[in-house]
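Module 6 notes. Inverse folding takes a fixed backbone as the condition and produces residue identities as the prediction. Think of it as a translation problem where the source language is geometry and the target language is the twenty amino acids. Below is one complete input and output pair. Work through it position by position during the lab.
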């Protein structure tokens, strides 16, 4: 957790940092309960500080969201370039989120 906190302080505010922070906290799994909620809150804090809208995982999207997290954790969530498939920049420069995550 100390390494994560040091990284977070130096990482800045950007969408890629938000998603990386989310995944890192989920991987660390520091709490008995609420790890996902805490990771999403942290991700949204970073997104808002970066000027992006927060992301909400709707109840009907939760199974796909969890599947996407498991794929990412197992190394199956990257494309041929090694980039995460869970988020990408659109041609307009706006952040687009895969079907498992919806902008609020």
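Target side of the pair, the amino acids:
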């Amino acid at each position: 957790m100390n390494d994560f906190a040091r990284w977070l302080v130096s990482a800045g505010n950007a969408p890629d940092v938000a998603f990386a922070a989310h995944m890192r906290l989920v991987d660390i799994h520091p709490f008995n309960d609420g790890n996902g909620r805490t990771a999403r809150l942290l991700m949204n804090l970073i997104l808002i500080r970066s000027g992006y809208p927060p992301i909400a995982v709707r109840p009907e999207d939760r199974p796909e969201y969890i599947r996407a997290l498991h794929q990412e954790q197992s190394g199956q969530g990257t494309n041929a370039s090694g980039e995460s498939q869970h988020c990408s920049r659109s041609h307009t420069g706006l952040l687009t989120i895969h079907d498992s995550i919806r902008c609020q």
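Reference fact for the lab report: The helical segments are 2-11, 15-28, 35-49, 62-73.
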